[in-house]
Amino acid sequence: MIDVLKKLFSGEDNTIPEQNDPRQLAIAATALMVQLSRVDQSEDQSERDTIIDCAIRTQSITREEATTILANARADAEDATSLYEFTEKLNANLDQAGKAEILENIWRVAFADGRIDKYEEHMIRRVAELLHLNHREYMECRHRAEIAMSS
User: Fold this and answer.
1) Which of 93, 87, 89 has the alpha carbon at shortest distance from 133?
2) Which long-range contacts (C-beta less than 8 Å, at least 24 apart) are formed by 135-142?
3) What would the pLDDT profile of 36-90 be if each residue is shown by its tens digit?
4) Which of 53, 103, 142, 150 is the most buried (most CB within 10 A)?
């Protein structure tokens, strides 16, 4: 991604990457889930499995494609300086329902290990704000994710 920006600003590349590329949106959404799984300093397999399951369910892709997206998102999350770079893409291309679906998936990742850490909850609240979701939408997403993860 940094190479693309360097080329763009240096004039080497006259093409601008398509902003609403579904793969880039999937990577941005998955990177937010990865960031959440790392916020409590104990990323575990149940969280990674939940991230892959969410990608398969919402993006209608294969497990192999979801695993590739997860690998790309993990790399992007490593290089990320803020959540804004991911939420900006999502805000530009998704409606409220699409953004709420992403927040619900983030809640699912939080519930995957059986506990909600205070840092996870704080980060989810921040993501909701950056996605311009109100408190009611935030709570509805949490409720739907909690029900889905308990069944």
Assistant:
1) 87
2) 137/96, 137/100, 137/103, 138/103, 140/100, 141/100, 141/103, 141/104, 141/106, 141/107, 142/107
3) 998 877 778 999 999 999 999 988 889 999 999 999 888 888 888 889 999 999 9
4) 103
